[in-house]
Amino acid sequence: MQTEHSDLLPRYTTALIGRDAETAEIGALLTQGQRLISLVGASGAGKTRLAVDCARLYTDHFAGGSFFVSLVPIRAAGLVLATIAESLGIAPTSNQPLINTIAHSFAPQPSLLILDNIDHVIEAASDVQALVAAVPQLTVLVTSQVALNVAAETIYRVPLLSVPAADAHLSADEIMQYGAVQLFSERLRRLQPMLKFDQTQAQAIGEMCRLVQGLPLAVELVASHSRSLPPSDLVRMVRHHLRLGAAMIDKNSTMQRKEILWPVLDWCYRLLSPTLQVLFIRLGIFRGSWTLESAEAICAGIPDVPINVVEGLQTLVDKSLVQLETLPNGEQRYLMLDAVHSYAEGRLQRRREANHLQRLYSAYFTHLAESAEKPLLGAEQPLWMARLQSDIYNLRSVLDWAVEQHPATALRIAGSLWLFWFTKGYAQEARTWILQAWLREHEVEPAVRAKAAIAAGICAQYFADHADATLWYERGQALFKQVGDSFGEIRALHNLASLAYQQRYYQQAVVLGEDVVARWRAINDSSGEAAALSNLASSYTGLGRFDDAERCYQQSLQINRTIGNQVGIILCQSSRGWLACAIDNVQLAEQVLDEALNLALHNDARNLIPGVQGSLARVWYKSGQLQRAFQLLRPVFDLQAQIQNLEQSGDEMLTLAAILAEQYPTLANQALRFAEHMQDPYNQEHQPDPASLREFERIAERIGMFAGEPTPPAHLPTISEFLDLVDQTVDPRVLG
């Protein structure tokens, strides 16, 4: 998990105004031991901005990092932990609760986690409480309209900005001392830099701030309409509208009419042209953020109202109804603040075009997913991975709708994005979507089902569920054969060969693998050939044919470099580096694993990073750099323990045993037992490859030199308990 808070906290281009006292009070809570703090206030009160600015101001207090997780796009409390894991770059594990995986991902130093807008998934309060209890060094700062009402919660009521009293006789300078007036004036200066703030204008600003009760978002929305009007004219418009108050909101609205924000939003909405009103409402279909391209395709996709989306978005940005953000890769995306999105979505749900717009929304993201499938295997892979990651909330929204309303759409998307699910850690979600949609498989054409079956098999294999993976691969193979898709049949065979290797059926894996390589070559499919060669190399390793394995790795690597498949290079170099280390070619191992790790980090291939780190830690152990090896290996368990399969996690536990053998032989023995349980090295039916068996025996012998014969413990701890014991006992400095 990254620990640079500057990379994970939102950035703002404007200063925080009128919040000096609140910042100091919250800072005192953060630094004096309160570990679950809820910033509670009205929608639009500026809770998010206050939380982020406090995190930046007190960053030195949180050496383990400060992290921001937006809960705005999700609609189910059950997704809160998954969203935290995703935002922090943590992949789910196959055999431990997600909350444990998240808990072990935090550094030993104090860390801060901001959970923004939890009120609409308040049922997850118990999960937040459990996370705080599980991580003693973690402080959680929550923003919400309501308190969590759990033990140990400290509630901080976020006040509205100060406004001058109606009967106060104040000078212009005195009026300017109030927080809401300062915020309005600062925003107004950006629009009208030549405006003079005389007594008349200052009084008008004071009245406007009073009319919106000092609510920061309402102040900003009103100020954004001041481009051509002086405050003295604008206040008359605001006064007229807010006198009508909530009565002007649609009587069918479910919004909280007593709050000042919705009348202000309604006022802003009514000032838009009819065309802009339609665009604003239609943008409520999106979850999270969106691109200009997607807005044009979806919002202008209904021809009854001609919409210039480019100009419309710019106007909505100018009026603070839409925000524009620039991602680190330079991509520009649009989004709405939670309260504004709720207003737009509420209006959309009451329009007859809502169903039509949902179909356009689903069709767009289905096309996006299917368009990504081939580029994900080539030189454009990083661009497509980043694009899909940016649209993950939109993809989820479409899939959640499709499994109920249109299973073919769900299976088309899930089947197309198998590499994305695998690389980014969404395998469990994808597996669930496919299973749900498959309940109505009779409604879906065989070709679509075939691709989805292969994707489901990949997800099952990811979690080492070999029986289920076999079922899905064979199901996909039969469906591809039924529709006469020879390419698909090769894909199915390809994955069955990979599965045979994972199950330690090495001879079968080699026979299948050689056949698959020949088939990919026959149809000139470079991507398939490269992946098959890498799989075949691993299978050769299982038979002890190390020279053949290196030859195939080299061929796979050359093809992957030619076509620009970054994930293919990572997987190939990771396996190649592991083999080089196992046969004691430490120099080659370090070279290729360094490349694999740098590529994995650069591409945010979060599910591939732990395996590479584990292998590199083994290299450093063999080089005598035990402290360095431990410091690299320990976070692998903390962040993504056993994320891919038991055998790979067993490799990492075996490395830990080797590192601890001399200084901590008792812990080393326990780690060895975990490794033996995971790898089952002496299974006569499914023996490991010779290199793995030799590594296990050498490390077991090393441990025996320092610990003697192990004594079976009265109680075998869980992996989490064992790792906690490692943290409490091991001083890396004494490892050498």
UniProtKB/TrEMBL annotation:
Residues 272-348 form the Winged helix-turn-helix domain. TPR repeats lie at residues 530-563. Keywords: TPR repeat. Pfam families: HTH_77, TPR_10, TPR_12. It comes from the Bacteria. Signal peptide: none annotated. SUPFAM superfamilies: P-loop containing nucleoside triphosphate hydrolases (SSF52540), TPR-like (SSF48452). This is Winged helix-turn-helix domain-containing protein. It comes from Herpetosiphon geysericola.
